[in-house]
Design goal:
The complex is a heterodimer of chains A (about 240) and B (about 300).
Chain A (H helix, E strand, L loop, with lengths): L4 E10 L2 E11 L4 E6 L5 H8 L7 E6 L14 E4 L11 H11 L4 H14 L15 H12 L6 E5 L7 H14 L4 E5 L3 H7 L2 E6 L2 E7 H6 L4 H6 L4
Parallel strand pairs in A: 3-7, 3-8, 5-6, 6-7
Antiparallel strand pairs in A: 1-2, 1-4, 8-9
Chain B lengths: L2 H18 L1 H36 L9 H8 L1 H11 L2 H7 L4 H22 L2 H8 L2 H5 L4 H34 L3 H4 L2 H26 L5 H27 L7 H5 L3 H8 L4 H26 L6
Helix pairs in contact in B: 1-9, 2-6, 2-9, 6-9, 6-11, 6-12, 9-11, 11-12, 11-14, 11-15, 14-15
Classes of the chains: A alpha/beta (about 240), B mainly alpha (about 300).
Chain lengths: ~240, ~300
């Protein structure tokens, strides 16, 4: 089976700083890969570059075996929760999700049905018709998470998905991710290493825009140390 | 889904969000209020002055408010004055058979559309760039489809607003001057609103083109207003400089890149001339939009 995300020698430069410096990574199919790294190590830049929001200065990206991301050729193939992004305050969750579903190629009825289902899974059915400005930060975050899974995409990029969620909703999202584990490819970035340890099948350590190590969670457990202690070794 | 379908889908989203947006609704209300105020002010002024004007020019006394203004407009000396003031015989030919109140509305709506364009669309794209809302769209549609969809949505959104402006102006006109010839002006007011829409489309292209260049809604609106002022004054100065002759003569051709230079075509009574001007304004709008897109397509959406 072909890897849904192949990155070779990716470079992104902001002024004098190299946010991504010959970054290479092959995400195994149906893996749940956790990206671990310090602030500014390049996790968000990587996700933004893969999804085409940020232009790469060099290197190659292959998403779902169809080349660099293009919304038309990759319709319904890539889902994402972008960091620090919110829809317009007057948008309504159900309308927004339905429209986004239609835009990625679902039929109107299908998009509506799937949006309702996702909102129910994220415990937002009663808020489906409320404007975003009336929703709490956590609720907005859940809608944003729901949109990433519209159309059950082959590859989903989750940038800090647990930020701003209360413990109940955090657990609900963990269960949601677990239900998709092994069926779809998920790339997850989080500073909560316990979440990465619990949810991911693979982990990639990123330092200064480069991949330091990639290993499976099984390999990590064999060391007898927790992800947190391995990550903090030599950093403190 | 085809590219056209994606553009239409973005436009539909723009319409549904704008209808719910307080800012868009407020902008339309301000336009309607300005339209009503203008018509109320004009009719009040006419009713105050026309008795004096009739007496001074020894015109026939009218049966009600506005009739003297109409008679005045038809009088030869007054037409000579207006022709001299317009400094454009073709424009004078185009408007001489029109009712003066209809023309006042036309002048008002043509003058107001740049402000309306910047108020509603000046920060439209930049506010989505600022909040990051654009990213949810750009995962599903290409950048040019998003820009064209938003532009189409804004263009469609303004058309009913302009017709509502005509309706409000007519209601005030009918209330203040309930005479036969004035009551027949509603189709004419709608026609001027429709013609002004093409001018608005051009200004929308400029406002939205600028809106793509920054992540700040406030900056985009400020630049939009500044450009409206520059784009209104500059072509007029260009005509003056070109008239001085020499190498400056080429400025006449350059002036056609500004909406103001194409506006006289919208005053033409002939539909063929008016349609040609309307088409050029739409193309001009797309030209402004494409300049903004040229830079937007090369930048990061961070």
């Amino acid at each position: 089976m072909k890897s849904p995300l192949v990155i070779r020698n990716l470079v992104k430069v902001y002024g004098r700083r190299r946010a991504l410096d010959s970054f290479s990574l092959v995400v195994p199919p149906q893996a749940t890969l956790g990206l671990v790294g310090e602030n500014g190590s390049g996790k968000t830049t990587l996700m933004m570059t893969v999804s085409g929001f940020v232009r790469a200065d060099g290197g190659e990206i292959d998403v779902c075996g169809r080349g660099p991301f293009d919304p038309a050729t990759h319709a319904g193939c890539l889902g994402m929760i972008p960091q620090d992004s919110e829809p317009m305050p007057e948008a309504r969750p159900l309308d927004l999700l339905t429209r986004l579903g239609i835009q990625q190629g679902l039929g109107r009825a299908e998009a509506r049905r799937e949006s309702e289902q996702l909102l129910a899974e994220f415990n937002l059915s009663d808020r489906a018709h409320m404007p975003f400005r009336a929703l709490s930060h956590g609720m907005r975050k859940r809608v944003m998470t729901a949109q990433a899974f519209l159309g059950d995409p082959e590859l989903v990029l989750l940038d800090e998905p647990f930020n701003g969620l209360d413990p109940v909703e955090t657990e609900r999202l963990r269960r949601f991710i677990r239900a998709r584990r092994g069926r779809r490819t998920l790339v997850l970035s989080s500073h909560n290493l316990v979440d990465i340890e619990k949810l991911c099948t693979h982990v990639a350590f990123i330092t200064k825009g480069r991949v330091e190590t990639v290993c499976t969670m099984e390999e990590l457990t064999k060391t007898g140390k927790s992800l947190e202690s391995i990550y903090l070794e030599g950093r403190l | 889904m085809t590219s056209v379908q994606r553009i239409v889908s973005v436009a539909a989203g723009e319409l549904s969000e704008a209808v719910r947006s307080r800012r868009a609704v407020m902008t339309v209300i301000v336009f309607l209020a300005a339209s009503a105020l203008m018509m109320y002010g004009v009719t009040a002024l006419v009713s105050l002055l026309e008795v004096e004007v009739a007496r001074t020019l020894q015109l026939e006394p009218g049966s009600g408010t506005g009739s003297v203004a109409n008679t005045l407009w038809k009088s030869v000396p007054f037409r000579r004055i207006v022709k001299g003031a317009l400094k454009d015989p073709l424009l004078f030919e185009a408007v001489q058979h029109r009712h003066p109140l209809e023309l006042l509305y036309a002048f008002f709506v043509f003058a107001y559309v740049p402000i309306l364009a910047v108020l509603t669309a000046g920060g439209r794209l930049s506010e989505e760039l600022e909040s990051g809302a654009v990213r949810f769209q750009l995962l599903r549609v290409r950048r040019h489809e998003w820009v064209l969809g938003r532009w189409l949505g804004q263009c469609l959104l303004q058309l009913p607003a302009l017709f509502m402006g005509a309706l409000v102006a007519y209601v005030f006109l009918a209330w203040r001057m309930p005479q036969g010839d004035v009551l027949r002006l509603f189709p004419a007011l709608c026609m001027w609103s429709f013609r002004a829409w093409f001018l608005l489309v051009s200004w929308l292209g400029l406002a939205m083109g600028v809106s793509m260049l920054t992540h700040s809604q406030a900056k985009a609106s400020s630049w939009g207003f500044l450009l409206v002022v520059i784009f209104t004054i500059l072509p007029r100065r260009m005509y003056v400089w070109a008239a001085l002759g020499g190498v400056r003569g080429w400025l006449v051709h350059f002036a056609d890149f500004f909406p103001v230079a194409l506006t006289p075509g919208l005053w033409e009574p002939s539909w063929a001339c008016c349609s040609a001007a309307a088409l050029r304004l739409v193309l001009q709008s797309l030209f402004y939009l494409s300049i903004g897109y040229f830079f937007f397509s090369r930048r990061d959406v961070r």
